[in-house]
Amino acid sequence: MVKSTANSTEPGTPNPSATMTQIDFHTNVPDKLLYTCRLIRKALNDGWQVVVFCGDDGELGKLDQVMWTFSEQDFLPHVRAEDPLAASTPVVLTASDEAALPHHRLLVNLATVSPANFARFERLIEVVSTDQNEVALGRERYAYYRQRGYPLKHYSRSANEQPVT
User: Fold this and answer.
1) Is the pLDDT of residue 90 over 60?
2) Which pTM was predicted?
3) What is the CATH number for 104?
């Protein structure tokens, strides 16, 4: 089920007074968690703050663990949304649509549903694996965003392509 925004006139319709969220789909991703760490590293190097939305607490815990171990040369400072340090930490992790989020620049979605408040962000990156069920749900989200007029870009990973650095 695709969820809607809280600050719009119609569910899922962007706030007309705000700039529309740019939505990028990164598909055919063999390892979503590792790929997400690379996206986060790139965003941090570009000076962006990031919120990562996971489908559940289990996936959130796995991402948290991968973020600590994916690279010996990089540190990805992160906390969960409910942590008192969330406002001063550049990467915030959540599995809850009700979480108070201190950053609204970049949202990375690892869930199979749209985050309820995605329209509050400047940019949303949807990360879709190679799993056929995830691909089908990703197509539904793509159609949902397109029907509502969001600017969309699609990046498909190929088997021989180098990962985001």
Assistant:
1) yes
2) 0.85
3) 3.40.50.10110
